[in-house]
Automatic annotation (TrEMBL), chains A, B:
It holds the Pfam family Response_reg. The modification 4-aspartylphosphate is found at D57. Residues 153-218 form the HTH luxR-type domain. It comes from Flavobacterium palustre. This is DNA-binding response regulator. One of its GO terms (molecular function) is DNA binding. The keyword Ion transport does not apply. Gene3D superfamilies: 3.40.50.2300.
Length: 220, 220
DNA sequence: TAAAAAATAAGTACAAATACTTAATTTTTT
DNA sequence: AAAAAATTAAGTATTTGTACTTATTTTTTA
């Protein structure tokens, strides 16, 4: 469980790298296995050293840290990544999350927070510093806010079968019975029956109600 | 700007309150103006002392901390609120956000983080500890994830009229042409025409595609 | 106050969905 | 191996929507 965490540092400033390195190496189960001074080098070093964790600065020559995250994720590289940033920036934070970063720290964070983040990310968790939490909360409370509602659970014995779920998905994507029949290689009449049963089970009387209910109970 | 921050503490454990109090009072521009040992008392003390900030524990007799937040927000009380929790709990975190809390800390947080949270919340910010960031990120990346996508904007000259928007809303709520006609006191044929025009404008060929496109472009 | 845009509504023919029921196969669970 | 559940599919009559076009009346905007 408490194996050595192999880390790569990517930051174009020697002092920053050195600072982080000395901080990390005060911990005995962390070892810095590589360093990079720009985005391209970061990708290279990660590919060759295969570390557990990459700590990457956003502002770097030849690809930003966020681009590095994107590229690694597109390659399905499972390395954990903590993004470092100078200031709170909504754009950077959201882009990092979207790109698939596991953590986000400000350069001003304390040694304790740094290590906490590092360990939780290395263990498969996420750590986005409280300093940027307002950005996350904004995202969550703006928009539909539906995300915050505890999703209602389907009551009692209501069971939607596998096949019905397939039909439901196709229905919600805009397919008609005929298209569904073709897609699943069944008769149009069968598709109709599945649709009918779905509507009966969910007690709805038309497609839109079906769609609404399906979304409400996150059936898809 | 750096005025004294007036704080109320609500926690049913004397030791916790006392610990926080001594921590806070080591800061010179923070003063604890009230304490409460349960939810009801918290509401009372906040109402009478009108503090800048309430630090409230979740688990308390007579209304949980979250219920206290809800009640204060329903009364439009502008007090800033930091919720304290023993452990990371998705349910508690999400409920706190929904109730309108400005911050969320674990009881194990460091003195530094505590004070950082307190100051940023007192200054109108939000502070949700990094320890629970995985919950926030989950919320943001699950669901439609649409929250992270820049919402596409309707192209060019495409204009949906007021009436069409009304029809659209009714359509998406599951109404048929006849029902829409009745609701808007127009002929069923008129409702049909509006629906037809909508579908033509949005280049869709059935209700579900209309629904999907409407959602995608947040037309409703 | 024109001109443009929006809302209203009818007609027609055709396509699709609704609302069931019945029933033969498969597949899954016990 | 039997029972239960799921999938398949057909029949029938009725309702609703599709895909237009044409045209009058209101409302908005220039």
């Amino acid at each position: 469980m408490n194996q050595t965490i192999r880390v790569v540092l990517a930051d174009d400033h020697f002092f920053v790298r050195d600072g982080i390195k000395s901080l990390l190496e005060s911990e005995k189960n962390i070892v810095v296995v590589g360093e990079a001074t720009d985005g391209l080098e970061a990708l290279e070093v990660v590919t060759t050293t295969n570390p557990d964790l990459l700590i990457v600065d956003i502002r770097m020559p030849h690809h930003t840290g966020i681009e590095v995250v994107e590229k690694l994720r597109n390659q399905n590289n499972p390395v954990k990544i903590i993004v470092l940033s100078m200031h709170e920036s909504e754009e950077y934070v959201l882009k990092s999350i979207k790109a698939g970063a596991d953590g986000y720290l400000l350069k001003g964070s304390s040694k304790e927070e740094f290590l906490k983040a590092l360990h939780s990310v290395a263990n498969g968790g996420k750590y986005f510093t409280g300093d940027i939490s307002s950005i996350l909360i904004n995202q969550l409370t703006s928009s539909t806010a539906s995300t915050l509602e505890p999703k209602p659970v389907l009551n009692e014995d209501l069971t939607i079968t596998k096949r019905e779920k397939e039909i439901l998905t196709l229905l919600l994507s805009g397919k008609g019975n005929k298209e569904i029949a073709e897609a699943l290689e069944i008769s149009k009449r069968t598709a109709e029956v599945h649709r009918f049963n779905l509507m009966k089970k969910l007690k709805v009387k038309n497609l839109m109600e079906l769609s609404n209910k399906a979304t409400e109970y996150s059936l898809i």
